[in-house]
Design brief:
Length: 576
Amino acid sequence: MTGALRYVAATVGRPWAAVALLVLAGLAVTGPSLVLGTPPTDSATFNRTWTEQFSRLFAAGLLWPRWLPDSFDGLGSPAFFFYAPAPFWVAAVLDLLTLGLLPNAVLLGLLGAVLAIASGLAMHAWVARAASPWRATLAGLLYIAAPFHLFDHYSRGALGELAAYAVLPLVAAGAEDALRGRRGGVLRLGAALAALLLSHLPVSLVVAVLVLPCQGLGFLFACRPRLAAAGMAALRVSGSVLLGLALAASYVLPALLLQGHVSMHDMNEGYYDPRRWLLIAPGGWPNRMMLVVVGSLALAYAIAAAGMLALLRGARDAAAPRQWAAIALVLLAVMAGALPWLWEPWSPLARLQFPWRLLVPVEFALVTAVALGLPAGFDRRTLGGMVAVVLAMAPAVVVGGGLIATRYEVAKLPRRQTTEAAAVSQRFDAFEYLPPGRATRLGANQGLRGETYESLVAPYRDRAPAWSEPPGTATVTLSPDNRGAGSVAVRASTGTRIILRRFYYPLWRLEDAAGAPGPVIAPHGPDGLAAFEVPAGETALRLVWSPPPVMAAGAAVSLLGFLVLLGLLVRLRRAA
């Protein structure tokens, strides 16, 4: 028996076998969505709106489509000034590779499969640095099949978090290298942090505020460096963080500094107040079903992490697994509300909306602890430990699996089918990307309702792309391109106001045929549509894409970060 187990361990530890197993595992766990398409997840309507437009504009040559012209039934959305683009770049490339033949739900299933496989391979690479090959393969398999990982795919539709799963192992590896002063560690951590920022901003915040500091403390306890060495380690990590921020500045700066032009402030109140989602106050949860899922997962993970610490107590060469088990417990304690002041409005974590987002790094930390804590050899004791881990996770898996299965049943409900049809025709988008204050008047914290969107878009459904106010005072012709820019021709009988059928955002300007500045575009009416005034007579204008200066500043900082990265790479190569 032991010989057979060792043969299996040796086989799955081989590189080709590990890759094959991880690819098959990724395809297996996402198989239903590859065949049936993704079910109606919490974000299904938004994912459809975003991936369809992003992929179409990407294929047309617009590599980063920040403005989505078809959202809100053609009123437009600046979604990708604020939402991280990385998973949608992957979706756009997959759409190109499949010649645009896949239905959107199946494309999203394929995206989930690719991200799951990438996460398994990244976890394998991370664990293989300090553990035997078979343990690295096991870590990749556990990570791919982690319950909240699958819940994100099948129930929440959280594409950004799925991408973050794939990047987290790279961040941890880069942080370890930077802390220990290994060659190229600063560059690897900086690049990984940039990738994480471009994948999911909330998980990046958790990593910066909690995970990296905990990893740094673990380094101090394990290595006990002198003060000067500890200071140098802190400087290296700080430099990596600055490099990561610089590389991702073209996204991060606009996302943070343009929030006054949308209704983002509404997304931290009421339903989205993180203090309502703490485990220490279950009576306040707006969604009791989510409490069942998160509560069962948190309990299972706490038992597993505490069990790992107990098993490894006094063990030699077990600092790393103890560290990651402890990090998992710290994250679970913060998520539960053991330190409630961390969720007050002044805290950076208050921007997370949902404390259970911490389950993403919790699963990473726990899988790392389990994989590194197993003995190097593969025997009956090891097999027994693995069985114990699986049994400890069984309740959470059963609960999560049952809820995921119901998602496909929900798709058959008439109300859901009606909402889905409205989402397709009206291009539902997220309320937080409406003009300031509009989300509050619509009652954004009441959840997704087709009639709410209908009340928003119905007054403009039959309108032309532009019209005059008062009506009949001018004829207007607007020919927009993919970015919403284009030519505007106006023939007015008197001075009048021209209304564009799009929400106002500071993304365009008007100029005349000679390139001189034209009328100023400003918000108009209760819905904040874009408008400008023209004199009597004929006016020919050009609507020009002209985003705020912060976008150019972000691009300049990213270019500088890239040049620094390139320079450091050249220096490393010369020193080799």
